[in-house]
Every structure is written in C-alpha cells, then in structure tokens.
C-alpha cells in the first residue's frame, strides 16, 4: 500500500515533527508513506469571502497537482463523515483488498479545502466536529493510520 499525505503549510513545531517522525517510522513496516508539504498562501488576518475562496483555490491547485490519478482520495474536512478507528481500519483494509494500492489523505490549510479538491475527493473524513490546527492534524492522522494497520493485523495497541 502506498499512502500519500498532502498537507498545506510548513510544520515548525519540533514536538509535532518528532511525533510524526516516530509514527512514520512505525508505519514503514506496513506501508510506503510519502508526506508532501505544500506552501500555504500568505493572507492578512481579515479576509473577505472572495479572498478566502481565492486563497483556497490557489492552495487547491497545488494540492491537485500532487494527487496520483489512481489514488483513492480522502479529504480531511470538519463536515466529513465521522469514523471510529475500527471503521478507518476497515476502509483501509477494503481499499487494499479490492486493488486500490494508493490512498491519498489531504489536510488543507487554515482556511480549509477548495471546492475543486473536495470534488476530487472520493470521501471526506472528519476526526471531530471540533476544529484542530492543521499542523496537529498531521500527527493525529499518522497515529490513526498506524492504529488502523495494527487493528487490521490483529496486533495489540493501547485503547
């Protein structure tokens, strides 16, 4: 299985980088993971709705250019479907079983994802109805993907 995680914005926090590196190391036993970090658009604190859409469109074009045509795309979005860890594990297992060898998770920038990216997504996934910093979502996502592989292999993992 090849998993690509496309993210918008630079990760600066050392503690988040260390956590992500740890889970990527653990995941390497199960799948090939590629983390693609794209530049975010610089924006003032106050934006009009039109300016927000323009920024999301620019970031969206960068995201779309990195998605493999054969990939099953899962966009992380607050309005997406809530799943348990077991349900995410089942999704990954079904994709692998039915011949999808490429999964692409997308984490947008602070303004979210463009309409074009959401159209390209095969599904939208929400980790919570709460809003999390997109940098923190990287760590949460890689931990949950690792947990999914442990669940699918019947290997113990803390609850």
SSE diagram, text form:
Elements: E1 2-8, H1 14-27, E2 32-38, H2 49-66, E3 72-82, H3 85-97, E4 102-107, H4 115-120, E5 123-126, H5 134-152
Parallel strand pairs: 1-2, 1-4, 3-4, 3-5
Helix pairs in contact: 1-5, 3-5
Task: Offer a few descriptive terms.
alpha/beta; 5 strands; EC 2.1.1.177; Ribosomal RNA large subunit methyltransferase H; Alpha/beta_knot_MTases; 22% strand; 5-stranded parallel β-sheet; 5 helices; 159 residues; transferase; methyltransferase; Alpha/beta knot
Describe this structure in words.
It is a single chain. The chain has 159 residues and is an alpha/beta fold. Helices cover 44% and strands 22% of the residues. The protein has five helices and five strands; from the N terminus they run βαβαβαβαβα. Strand 3, helix 3 (85-97) and strand 4 (102-107) form a beta-alpha-beta unit. Helix 1 packs parallel to helix 5 and helix 3 packs across helix 5. The two termini are 25 Å apart. 26% of the residues are buried. The mean pLDDT is 94.
CATH superfamily: SPOUT methyltransferase, trefoil knot domain
Share of residues in helices: 40-55%
Distance between the termini: 25 Å
Radius of gyration, in angstroms, nearest whole number = 15 Å
Instruction: Write down the overall geometry.
Output: globular
Count of domain modules: 1
Briefly note the CATH topology name: Alpha/beta knot
**Unreliable spans:** none
What composes the largest sheet? 5 strands, parallel
Question: Under the CATH scheme, which architecture would be assigned?
Answer: 3-Layer(aba) Sandwich
Function: Specifically methylates the pseudouridine at position 1915 (m3Psi1915) in 23S rRNA.
InterPro entries: Alpha/beta_knot_MTases, RlmH-like, tRNA_m1G_MTases_N
Binding site for S-adenosyl-L-methionine: 76, 108, 127-132
Keywords: Cytoplasm, Methyltransferase, rRNA processing, S-adenosyl-L-methionine, Transferase
